[in-house]
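Lay summary

Proteins are chains of building blocks that fold into shapes. Our project writes down both the chain and a compact code for its shape. Here are two examples, one after the other.
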Amino acid sequence: MTDPAAPEPGPGSAATPAPEPAPAPRRGRGRPAARDGGSGPGARDRILQAARAEFAARGYDKTSIRGIAKKAGVDPALVHHYFGTKEQVFETAIEKSFEPALDLPDLMTQDPGGAGELLARHFFTIWENPVTRAPLLAVVRSAVTNETAAALLRGFVLRRLLGRVAGELDVPDARFRVELAVSQLLGIVMLRYVVKIEPMASADIEDIVAAVAPVIQRHLTGP
């Protein structure tokens, strides 16, 4: 309320200036400013989910950091902050996509004679599930069309998957044997899920497992 006794300023008097607003706090280097829901909780997971969707829909060559960021609703700088380059985004997406495959039961400690069926059943259980199949298809399609993606996939599979299985085999040339087994399984993947050639594409998965398990077993433990 205005005090009636207070003198009003005359024509030549200056009003008291309003205090200047405090300067905005400076952002630390390294993390970009949030935009469109940017660097909030779960941003990293949203970026990975968007990356898998983009790689699946467009392949490695046509996927860009900007496109991944747009789909995730973040600034492109945030993608670089978490993952670096597109190659590193793809490598992290591979690892996330292959997590179900890495949860492989111990083949040789349960029943060495049934390792072929166990490996085939575990492998195709993952591919038959639409939730786990979609990101794996993105990886396979990208690797088929782009050498950088193929090299990243080879390195990951050799380091994390084949090495583990080969370490459980007490046989000569264990790594080579596992590669033969995996190549057999990946061949079926290409025909059934990628190219979709009949009758492989619509065959009952139990029939496929029954047919391929003895071949996988021979690769793993046969003469």
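And here is the second example, written the same way.
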Amino acid sequence: MRYAPAILIGRIVRKLARWRKPGGGSAIPGVVVNAIAPGFLPRTLNSFPGGLVIVTGSSGKSTTTKMLVAALRAHGVSVFTNPSTANISQGLSSALLEQVSLGGRIAGDIAVLEMDEGHGALISDSLTPRVVALTNVMVDQIDRFHDSEMVAAMLAKIAARATESVVLNSDDQYLVELGERLSGVRVDRYGVSAEVLAQNPRGLGYTQTALDRLPAGEGVLLTRVNGRDAELNLDGRTYAFTLPARGTHYAVDAVTALATARSALGERFNPVVALTAISSIPPVFGRGEIVSVRGRMVEFVLVQNPASFQLNVDSLEPGTEQIMIAVGSDVRDPSYFWPVDTSGLGHVLLASGSKAHDIALQLAYDGVTVDRVEPDLGTALDAFLALDDPAHGLKTIIFSADSMRRTRAHLGLTSNDEESA
């Protein structure tokens, strides 16, 4: 009961924060609790009978975590998880406050947490995860993680705390080398086939693709992607499944989730049960999600680094007529996105966000026609949604993380991840 006062204070702060700013202030209770009771977060996370599973890496964390949770729950496992927006220490503590008892316990068999690589490394010494899943190493969030060696070191620190297994992407050179240095834990691998790589000539953002091809019968191998339809090979058998959104990057997330579910469940693992669950989940907010907004069907596409930007541009439905791009303050250096070939977009109706002119310039250099540059995101969204429905494809909004959050607030949308956490 030693954490009861901190939990009570945190809950009071949470109510006050939500009263003052509906839909916001979710991290403040965690800041307060962590200051009052620094041991609350690790003590609670380490208390689950089935252990702690951490999903971390440069990109793909949110979708992989949601797929993994669905796969575990389909096996009858009670799972505590965090919203995709609560992957740093104060956000994790705030998420725990929603369900923790005054004794510092949460009902559930296992905890599955998406964890920011930087914050995860800071608190890793106090955690004892049973399984750690590593997605990839990329130059991501350039203002924080501008150096791949630094990111790899953070992930290595988190992985070193695993007590049972580390699940890693065998197509990423940094992770391959990280796995070779691990001792005392099992290393489970996943990857993509040469055929899938050939379908993505611009690459998947790995440091060196196809470096460590999985031997036959080892790990989980993605063998085919066609829109939302995909296939993988597991133990010499081929399994077909459906993705929540189109694109090879979502298929890689699914393979990551499947390999992690297999590692966490052991003999209880059933690939058919897991893939059926993965196929049935809705997209994580903004990741290829299609929603009805003001009577219009809109697809939201989040881009967080050059690799995800390129993959999302390449996977858009050909001939999409109405596209809006919004890049916000999270992209502090606009040259960050210049390696992306945006020419496939062809025609963009609106460029918006605080970096509206910068992204419009890049589009122009790539030969993309931009009808209007409107830095005020609210004004741009209202104008875009007021347009009649397109004759072909869906209204599509491509945004950076900052613009995603502002879009959600302006349109009054609630993340389904927040609802299910």
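What can we say about the second shape? The chain has two domains: 4-280, 287-420.
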